């Protein structure tokens, strides 16, 4: 295996662990809340600082990756994530929980600006590699719901944090052994001729990116946090078993993850706008319909809007990768993820407020309306001149 492929393999695994770690609590909160004599809506906001740090921390971590060492930053990610998750498993109070989830969010902020920059620098086909990377990340989202559901049912919620902690540390040891520090000086230029637009319309590219990053990030985070609880309530006629509900959530997320691979490959062959616009349009009606739906129809609609939501991530990352030079790509992704994940961090409180006010009926309708902004972002994105 070439050095570039080896780097990409570790980056993909890191993406899996990053999203897996951030969503353990979203699946386990259903079990943790009663141990503190709290409701779901009362304990969920304790995750807010961690999700905000997930985005806010990216400004510093992206800068460190560009100025110091991307390779070493990823080593810190693996080891410190393991230690942070171990810390969560030992908490005794809600306040301690909030502090440890904050540390998890700070460490998790390393991956996206640093890991994505490493990936783009070593990619042969940009869209395809970002699509595959997206599959790994969202497989982490899906697996978190599934594995956490199974472990919490049979072994308890503390073990649900200990297992991935050990996995992260083991991967970190392997990473240091196989990826030398010299990789920071080796840049493989993408073989893809990047699509371009004229300088006169670059402002529309930036406007589109800002609008869609904010709106789609809030949507992405709100849905991934709420889906386990939504399925627990709306699929009660089908099953009440946590492991089965986790399996259903896993399959829904898996559909979105697999769609990212297809979308990534299409982005190497077709205009961004032609892929981007349909993905944004499909989310609004399906999410609105899902607000009053249950059982099998809810699962069907969830698959469709999850495909659209996850697909937008691939489009946004490919868009940025095509328009940035490697020497400051980490900082560019840092700005993108700072904007996106900071906005996403607010979605934890938003889900809690909307759920307490009107349940998932109100929450899904509100997020559907918000998703109209992503449609606007896709519409104003200019057509590319792929001949440039």
Major sheet summary line: none
Q: Indicate the percent of residues in helices.
A: over 70%
Portion in strands: under 5%
Number of domains: 1
Number of helices: 15
Task: Report low-confidence residues grouped into runs of 5 or more.
Answer: 188-195
Oligomer: single chain
- The count of DSSP E runs of length 2 or more, i.e. the number of strands, is 0
Mean of the pLDDT scores? 86
Helix/sheet category:
mainly alpha
Order of helices and strands: HHHHHHHHHHHHHHH
Radius of gyration: 20 Å
CATH architecture: Up-down Bundle
The shape, in one word, is globular
CATH topology: Growth Hormone, Chain: A
CATH class label = Mainly Alpha
Write out the CATH superfamily name.
Answer: MFS general substrate transporter like domains
First-residue to last-residue Cα separation:
33 Å
Structure description:
The chain has helices at residues 3-35, 40-43, 48-56, 58-67, 70-89, 94-108, 111-122, 126-154, 157-178, 202-234, 242-267, 272-290, 295-322, 329-370, 372-380. The longest helix is centred in the C-terminal third of the chain and has 42 residues, at 329-370. It is globular and about 55 Å long. With 388 residues, it is mainly α.
Provide a quick synopsis of the model:
The chain has 388 residues and is an all-alpha fold. The chain has a single domain (3-380), classed as Growth Hormone, Chain: A, CATH 1.20.1250.
Layout of secondary structure:
Layout: H1 3-35, H2 40-43, H3 48-56, H4 58-67, H5 70-89, H6 94-108, H7 111-122, H8 126-154, H9 157-178, H10 202-234, H11 242-267, H12 272-290, H13 295-322, H14 329-370, H15 372-380
Helix pairs in contact: 1-5, 1-6, 1-7, 1-8, 1-9, 1-10, 3-6, 3-14, 4-5, 4-7, 4-14, 5-6, 5-7, 5-9, 7-14, 8-9, 8-11, 8-13, 10-11, 10-13, 10-14, 10-15, 11-13, 12-13, 12-14, 12-15
């Amino acid at each position: 295996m070439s050095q570039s492929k080896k780097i990409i393999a570790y980056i993909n695994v890191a993406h899996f662990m990053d999203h897996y770690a951030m969503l353990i609590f979203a699946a386990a909160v259903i079990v943790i809340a009663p141990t503190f004599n709290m409701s779901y809506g009362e304990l969920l906001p304790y995750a807010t600082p961690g999700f905000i740090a997930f985005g806010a921390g990216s400004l510093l971590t992206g800068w460190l990756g560009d100025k110091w060492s991307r390779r070493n930053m990823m080593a810190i990610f693996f080891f410190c994530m393991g230690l942070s998750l171990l810390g969560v498993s030992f908490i005794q109070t809600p306040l301690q929980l909030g502090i440890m989830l904050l540390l998890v969010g700070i460490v998790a902020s390393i991956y996206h600006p640093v890991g994505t920059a490493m990936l783009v620098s070593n990619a042969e086909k940009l869209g395809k590699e970002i699509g595959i990377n997206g599959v790994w990340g969202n497989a982490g989202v899906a697996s978190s719901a599934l594995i956490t559901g199974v472990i919490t049912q049979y072994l308890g919620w503390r073990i649900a944090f200990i297992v991935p902690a050990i996995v992260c540390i083991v991967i970190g040891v392997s990473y240091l052994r196989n990826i030398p520090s010299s990789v920071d000086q080796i840049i493989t230029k993408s073989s893809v001729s990047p699509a371009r637009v004229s300088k006169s319309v670059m402002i529309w590219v930036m406007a589109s990116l800002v609008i869609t990053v904010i709106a789609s990030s809030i949507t992405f985070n709100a849905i991934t946090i709420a889906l386990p609880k939504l399925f627990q309530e709306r699929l009660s006629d089908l099953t009440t078993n946590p492991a089965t509900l986790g399996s259903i959530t896993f399959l829904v997320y898996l559909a979105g993850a697999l769609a990212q691979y297809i979308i990534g490959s299409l982005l190497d062959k077709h205009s961004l706008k032609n892929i981007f616009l349909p993905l944004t349009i499909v989310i609004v009606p399906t999410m609105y319909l899902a607000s009053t739906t249950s059982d099998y129809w809810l699962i069907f609609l969830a698959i469709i809007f999850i495909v659209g939501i996850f697909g937008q991530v691939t489009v946004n990352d490919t868009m940025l990768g095509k328009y940035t030079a490697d020497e400051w790509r980490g900082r560019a992704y840092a700005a993108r993820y700072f904007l996106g994940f900071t906005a996403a961090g607010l979605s934890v409180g938003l889900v809690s407020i909307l759920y307490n006010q009107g349940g998932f009926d109100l929450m899904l309708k509100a997020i559907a309306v918000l998703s109209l902004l992503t449609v606007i972002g896709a519409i104003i994105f200019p057509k590319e001149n792929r001949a440039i």
